[in-house]
Amino acid sequence: MIKPTLLILAAGMGSRYGGLKQLDGVGPSGETIMDYSVYDAIEAGFGEVVFVVRKHFRSDFEERIRGRYGDAIKFNFVEQELENIPVGFKLNPERSKPWGTGHAVMMAAHAITTPFAVINADDYYGQDSFRILADFLRGVEGKKGEYAMVGFKTLNTLSEAGKVSRGICSADENSLLTSVEEHHNILAEEVNGIVKVMGDNSAGERVEIDKSAPVSMNMWGFTPDYFTMSDQLFIEFLNKNINNPTAEFYIPYVVNKFISSKSASCKVLATPDKWFGVTFREDRDKVVESIAKLVSEGKYPTPLFNK
Q: How many domains does the chain have?
């Protein structure tokens, strides 16, 4: 049986965080959040990791990865740049960033031939999440158009540092995704529970959010036909947005298009794990504390990798 591949989106610069958060050591031996994802993927049976990076930091990033993981797993690197667009399109000179997560995934088309998972480099997803997704991917080997999204309970995805945006999902009776709707300004309040704050200030109207509603934290499972299908969608997207300096081609946009056209289905895989990450600089201390707790409970060794 072919082992699935893990695709890690590591090209973002972390403007809100204030640095290259992908390489920030938050574990007892300087491990990054990404290191824990790689460790969990190995334990779940993934056979290779592909990193999406930017050209200007690839050398430093690659050196760090090779020095840390050694022979623990096979790994590869691909680059995402804003000029990586189809022939015939001309970039708006005002554009300074690549085209989003959907575009990032497309950069790995030449590097992946197996069913694959997609995650963010700066999010912790949990051991059960990787096992659940790996099982799904092994089951769709050789198939087309059978995708998956790991759905976290809204309650398990909040930040103590401030309001967050979350893609809240709807699914049918077969746990097949019907839509992902982006909601902004979500937080937990002692009096009101989990709410979405309407308007631009803290005094805005509160709309209750179901604490158990499945949320997309950008943990997806795809078969390789995803690449060909998304190529055509990207061309359609560029025809409408090539002159927009801020438009981004996101994975949920791609998946929603696939679902609405019935060219693919997407299973929502429920996970009991609690997400955490470093959206804001203020999140870091909580992440360090959470990882230290997992290590003390024996969930992870330290250091993670014995080269």
A: 1
